[in-house]
Write a structure and sequence with these properties.
- By secondary structure, the chain is mostly helical.
- The radius of gyration is 23 Å and the shape is globular.
- The chain folds into two domains: 288 residues, Ferritin (Up-down Bundle); 45 residues.
- It has a two-stranded antiparallel ribbon with strand order 1-2.
- The protein has 13 helices and two strands; from the N terminus they run H-H-H-H-H-H-H-H-H-H-E-E-H-H-H.
- Bound molecules: Phenylacetyl coenzyme A.
- InterPro entries: Aromatic_CoA_ox/epox, Ferritin-like, Ferritin-like_SF, PaaA, PaaA_PaaC.
Length: 338
Amino acid sequence: MYTQALNARDTTAPVAGPEEAARAARFQARIDAEERIEPNDWMPEAYRRTLTRQISQHAHSEIVGMLPEGNWITRAPTLKRKAALLAKVQDEAGHGLYLYSAAETLGTSREELFDQLLAGRAKYSSIFNYPTLTWADIGAIGWLVDGAAIMNQIPLCRCSYGPYARAMIRVCKEESFHQRQGYEIMLTLCRGTPEQKAMAQDALNRWWWPCLMMFGPPDAESQHSDQSAKWKIKRFSNDELRQKFVDATVPQGQYLGLTFPDPDLAYDEAAGHWRYGAIDWEEFKQVLAGNGPCNRQRMKQRRDAHAAGAWVREAAMAHAAKRARRAAAKADALQQAA
Ligand code: FAQ
């Protein structure tokens, strides 16, 4: 499945002894047999760590990903557009929650995962560090960002870890609605006035390359891919998914009558693929290092939202404690009456 040699670091923890080696071999045999791994099953610590890393990064991406779109809820051009955008952003909150729950089954609490994000110790997708300057950006995010997310996440429905794979099924169904609402916004703009079409073109110009970066570094530089493929967490490499996305998306852009901001984009008849130009990996590295156009703003918004929600968490905990006390008192009373 992997088309390029992967320069991957083996993240498997050192195997302690023959018993541990036998366990690891049995674990790998289950994976090879396409069995699902469930939370209470034995798993290598490195498998647990890899999944916790990927699932929590994914959860953080959904949550931070609400911010660029949330920016347009109050400025959506019609009531229908506003309702659809609100629903989409709420879906993303839901995806974040399923994903935090899936990550928790691996033994790290949600509070700790939040702390990692808020302290700047956790990654979230690079794409959410770009600004949404016009309404067309909402169309471009749905069409391109959700389109890329679906391409990446459909194979995750077959991930070896049960809770993650199951969460992905519903997430992908919802992402598919998101992608359609985005494409429909683009279609409306492209069939509108010349100014509206120019807005759609400008959004494509700004979002195209960052969307290609969403799939992660090229295979030769992807440190986790090799091991994640062996564990059937990843079913396709970063470059393979990127190519699938380009192949699916270019005809959609052509239908819109838009031009991709890549002079090297050309159809390779023999291979049956759209070939694209060089990606600016330096830009990707800068965004990951916290120097993208909106990194600081996004983190500040998340920290402020978390602080502003402190009273809700406290109230929910107090309410839960009160219900638990009442339930215990009721159980005591019933026991005494019996
Ligand atoms: N941004 O060795 P690899 C969405 C990091 S959800 C930031 O190739 P891996 C829904 C990577 O973490 C979008 N960091 O890593 C939505 C690693 O760093 P680490 C999120 C990135 O894990 C739509 C290092 O580079 N989707 O869009 C990125 O095997 C609209 C080396 O990379 C997911 O998270 C990046 N783009 O492959 C919401 C899907 N790429 O951890 C709102 C699940 C790589 O060693 C609106 N995740 N890095 O410090 C995955 O499939 C994988 O984690 C990859 C990366 C493919 C993202």
